[in-house]
Amino acid sequence: MAYITPVLPEIIVLTMACVILLADLFWRRRFKGLMYGVSQATLVGAGFAAYHMLGDAPTVIFHGMVVGDRLSAIFQIAIFMLTIGVLAYSRTYIAERGVFRSEYFVLALTGVVGMCVMVSAAHFLSLYLGLELLSLSLYALIAMQRDSIGATEAAMKYFVLGALASGLLLYGMSMLYGATGSLRITQVASVLATLPPHNLVATLGLVFVLSGLAFKLGAVPFHMWIPDVYEGAPTAVTLYVSTAPKVAAFALFLRLLVEGLHGLSGAWQEMLVMLAVLSMGVGNVVAIAQTNMKRMLAYSAIAHMGFLLMGVLSARVGGYADALFYALVYAFMSLGAFGIIILLSRKGFEAERLEDLRGLHRRSPWYAWMMLLFMFSMAGIPPTIGFYAKLAVIQAAVSAGFYGLAVVAVLFSVIGAFYYLRIVKLMFFDAPVDAAPLRKAGDLRWLLSVNGVAMLLAAPWAGTLIAICRAAVRGLP
Amino acid sequence: MIDVYRHIALSIAIWLPIATGLVILALGGRAPGLVRPLGTAGAGITFLATVPLWGLFHAHSFAMQFGERIPWIPAFHINYALGLDGISLPLVMLTSFIGVVVVIAAGPAVKERVAEYFAAFLIMEGLMIGVFCALDAMLFYVFWEAMLIPMFLIIGIWGGPNRVYATIKFFLYTFLGSVLMLIALLYLHFEAGETFNIASFYHLPLGNTPQILIFLAFLIAFAVKIPMWPVHTWLPDAHVEAPTGGSVVLAAIMLKMGAYGFVRFSLPIVPEASHELAGLMITLSLIAIVYIGLVALVQDDMKKLIAYSSIAHMGFVTLGIFLFQNIAMEGALVQMISHGFVSAGLFLCVGVLYDRLHSRAIHDYGGVANRMPIFAAFMMLFAMANAGLPGTSGFVGELFVILGAFKADFWYAVLAATTLISGAAYTLWMYKRVIFGAVTKPAVAGLSDVTGRELTFLAVLGVAVLFLGLWPAPLLHVMAASVHHLLLRPGVQLGGATP
C-alpha cells in the first residue's frame, strides 16, 4: 500500500473519470443529475488523500518516475480546490449551452490527473506525460461546442502551437540527456553539478526547455495562443484554462529549473528576466487596447505571469514561495473575474464585451462591488490580497538584487492599473445599456460573494498562506 | 480605564469609521433612513474618541505615545504598529474633525447613492487616520494606497461633468508616485535587517548614492501628493470635478500627507540627502509660491482658484520643512493645520453657492452680500485667513516660515513674502467680485442665506480658524518637543540651511 500512496490522488481521480464515462454510457438519463456531484466528490476525496500525504517524508516510486513530497501534495491540493471552484462556477453555464455532458467532466478530470502527474514528476518522461495529458484534455475541452467557429479555431491554434511547444520541450530534454546521461531530475541535477560551468549542450537544452515551459505558462514571446484561446473557448473552459493549469505550469518551473537545472541558475535567471519584462510590458500595454473582456483578461494573465516569474528568477527558496503565493492568488482572482462574465451571460448572449459591464452598479450593486474587489486585487492595490502577492514577488526580486527589474515591474503595474480602473469606471460611473435583469443563480451568488470577500478578508491572513507556500518549497535547493 | 484607552485609542479612531462605513454599505439599500444618522454618529463618536488624546498626550516628550504593536504578517515582518508624536497628533485631530464637518456638509445636494457616499467618506477617514498613526512602513503604505480607492469612487460617482478624466488622472498620478516609494521601503527593509519598523530605518548608515536615490523615490511619492510644482496638474482637475466633500477632504487632509511623509520619512531616514537636495526643494517651493500664486490670480472657476491657492500654501509648508530651522518647521506644521481649516472653509463656501446656483464661475456671481449677509461674513473670515491676515490661523504659519527664511537667506524670505501680496490679491479679488457690488444677475437676486446645517459647519470651522490664529500656543506646545528632536538628529544641524 505504501508503494502507491503518493499516487493515490491520481488513482482516485482517474478511476472516477472512467466510472463517470461508463456510467454515462449505460445509464445516461438517470446519471445526468449525479455527474456533477460525483465529480466534485471525487475532487474532494482526492484532496483528502493528498492532504494525508502532507506529513510524509519524500518518497520516490515507480523506478524514479514519481515523487511524493510536500511540494506535490500542496500543489495537488491547490489544483483540486481550484478545479472544484471551476466546476461550481461553470455548472449553470454549461447546462444552458448544452455541454452538460459527461465528456466535460471526464476531460476536466483527466486534465486534473495530468496536472497531478506534472507536479509530482521526478523524471522527464513522466513530466512530459502529465503535460500532454493535460494539453490533450484542454484541446478537446476548448472544442466541445463543435458548432462554434471561434472555439474550433481556438482549439486548432492551441493544438498546433502546443504541439510545437511540446516538441521544443522534448528536444531540450534530449539535449539535457545528452549532456548528463540521465532523464531523472535528481540525477540530472547531480551530474550538472560536476560538469564544468558554461556547458554548451546543457545550456542549449535549457533554452529549449525554457521555451517550452514559457509557452505553457504563456509568457511573452510565447504567448500568442493565450488571447485567441481565452476569447474563443466557452467561458467555462476559459475559466479552467486560466486557473489550475497555470499553477501546474508553475510547478514545472520548480521541478525542471529549480530541482533539475539549478546548476544553470545563472543562465536561466537572465533568460527569465527577459521573459518577465516582456510579459509585463506586452501584457499590460496590449490589454489597454482590448474591447473584449476575455481578451483583456488574457493579456492581463500574460502580465501576471511576468510578475510570477519575478519570484522564480530570484533563485531563492523564499522567492519560490512568493511565486507560488502569487500563482494561487492570481488563480483565485481569475476565477472571480471570469465568474462575473458567466454571471452576466445568459442563454444566447455572451457578456464578453467591456460594454456589457456598463452600469453594473445600478443593475446589481453587490456584484459590482465584488468585481471592483477583483479588479483592484488584480491591479495590486491594498488592502486587497493582490497587493500582498505583488509585494511578495517584488520583495523577492529586491532581495536578489534585481532593483531595475523591480522598478520596471512597479511601473508596468501602474500602466496595468489603467485598464482595471476602466472596468470600475464602466461599472460605477456609467449608466447601464443592458437592462435585462441578472440571473438569480443561487450558488453562483454565494460563490462570487465568498470569492470576492476573500480578496479583502484574506489579506489579514496573507501570512498564513505564505507560511503554507514556504512549507511547500522548503525542500528545494 | 485610561490605561486601556491609551492602548486602543488609535485602533478605535481607525476602525470605528471604517466599520461604520461598511455597515452603512451593507444596510444601504434596505434602510435609507438610517444612513445619515448612522454616518453622523460614526464620525461624531470617532471625533469624540480622539479628543482625549490631546489631554493625555505628554507634550514634553518626543517619544511615540499611545503605542500599539501586534505582529501582523510575520512572514513579511510586517507589524500592526501604531503611535503618535507631536507631529502626527494634530493631524489626527484635524482628520477626525474634518470627518465630522464633511458628514454634516453632505446635505441634500447628495441625492443618489447616499449610502455609498457616506460609506466612502467614513472608510476614507479611517484610512487617513491610519496613515498618520502607522509606525510600520508597510502598514503606512497599505493605508496610503488604500485611500485611493474611496477617493477614486467619490470623484468618479458624485463628481462634475469631466469627472472620469479627473479621477483616473488622480488615481494614476498618485499611484505612479507611490510605487517607487514601495521599492525604497523594500530596500530599507533589507538594509535594516528585515524589519519595516520606521524607527529602525532612522539610524541606518546609508551611502551617498542610496541616500539620494531613496530621497528621490520618496520625493516623487510625496511631491505628487502635496502636490509640488511641476507635478501638481492633477489637483486642479480633481478639485474642480470632485463633489464638495471630496474637495474638502483632498485639500484639508490628503495634501498634508505628502508633507507628513517628508517629516516622517525623508528627513530622518536620509538626512544627508535631505540637506544636499534642500536647495532643489526650496527652489521648487518658491516656484510654487510665486508662480502658482500668479496662476491663481487669473482663474475664473472658484474651485480652481482655491486649488491653486492650496498648491501655493503647500509650497510654504515644504519651504518651512527644508529650511531646517526650528521656527520654520513649526511654522510649516502650523500652516498644515491652518490650511486644513481654511481650505475646508473656502471649499464649503463654494459648495454653498454651487448648491444654489450650480455654477462655480466667478462671473456668474456678484453682490451676493446683499442676499446672503451671514454667508458673506463667514466667507470673509476664510478669505482673510487664506490671505494670511493677522489674527487668523493663516498668519501664524506664514510668519514663522518667513522668519525662518530670513535666517537662512534674505532672498528666500523676499520671494516667500510675495505670497502676502499675491495671496491677498487672488483671494480678496475673488471675494470682491463674488460678494460685493450690486446685484446684476437675476439668479443671484433669488439667493437665500445659509440654512442651519450650513451655519453649523461654517461656524465650527470659523471658530477653529480664529482660535488657532489668536492663540496658537497649545498647538505649538504639543509639537515643540518632536520638532526639536527631529532637527537634532545626527546630520541635521540647527541653524542655517545648506542649499
Please outline the helices and strands.
The complex is a heterodimer of chains A (477) and B (499).
Chain A (H helix, E strand, L loop, with lengths): L7 H19 L1 H25 L6 E3 L4 E3 L1 H27 L5 H18 L4 H19 L6 H32 L4 H10 L5 H18 L7 H8 L2 H8 L1 H17 L4 H24 L4 H21 L3 H28 L15 H4 L1 H15 L5 H15 L3 H26 L13 H16 L4 H12 L4
Antiparallel strand pairs in A: 1-2
Helix pairs in contact in A: 1-2, 1-4, 2-3, 2-4, 3-4, 3-10, 3-11, 3-14, 3-20, 4-5, 4-11, 5-6, 6-7, 6-8, 6-9, 7-11, 8-11, 8-12, 9-10, 9-13, 10-14, 11-14, 12-13, 12-18, 13-14, 13-17, 13-18, 14-16, 14-17, 14-19, 14-20, 16-18, 16-19, 17-18
Chain B lengths: L1 H26 L4 H25 L8 E9 L4 E7 L3 H18 L8 H20 L3 H10 L1 H11 L4 H29 L6 H4 L6 H18 L8 H8 L2 H26 L1 H6 L1 H20 L4 H20 L4 H32 L10 H4 L1 H15 L5 H16 L1 H26 L6 H4 L6 H19 L2 H16 L11
Antiparallel strand pairs in B: 1-2
Instruction: Give me the Rg of chain A, rounded.
Output: 21 Å
Instruction: Provide the gyration radius of chain B in Å.
Output: 22 Å
Largest sheet of chain A: 2 strands, antiparallel
Label the overall shape of chain B: globular
Low-confidence stretches of chain B: 491-499
Lateral arrangement of strands in the main beta sheet of chain B: 1-2
- Shape annotation of chain A: globular
Structural class of chain A: mainly alpha
In round numbers, the mean pLDDT of chain B is: 87
Q: How far is the N terminus from the C terminus of chain A?
A: 30 Å
Strand content of chain A: under 5%
Indicate how many domains the architecture of chain A comprises.
1
What is the averaged pLDDT score of chain A? 88
**DSSP summary, beta strand count of chain B:** 2
Task: Report what the structure shows.
The complex is a heterodimer of chains A (477) and B (499). Chain A is mostly helical and 477 residues long. Chain A has one domain. Chain A has 20 helices and 2 strands. Chain A has a two-stranded antiparallel ribbon. In chain A, strand 1 and strand 2 form a beta hairpin. In chain A, helix 3 (70-96) runs antiparallel to helix 11, helix 8 (200-217) packs antiparallel against helix 11 and helix 14 (317-344) packs antiparallel against helix 16 (365-379). The model of chain A has no long low-confidence stretch (mean pLDDT 88). By secondary structure, chain B is mainly alpha-helical. Chain B has helices at residues 2-27, 32-56, 88-105, 114-133, 137-146, 148-158, 163-191, 198-201, 208-225, 234-241, 244-269, 271-276, 278-297, 302-321, 326-357, 368-371, 373-387, 393-408, 410-435, 442-445, 452-470, 473-488, and strands at residues 65-73, 78-84. Chain B has a two-stranded antiparallel ribbon. In chain B, helix 3 packs antiparallel against helix 4 (114-133), helix 4 (114-133) packs parallel to helix 11 and helix 15 packs across helix 22 (473-488). Chain B is globular and about 70 Å long. The interface between A and B is large, with 35 and 37 residues.
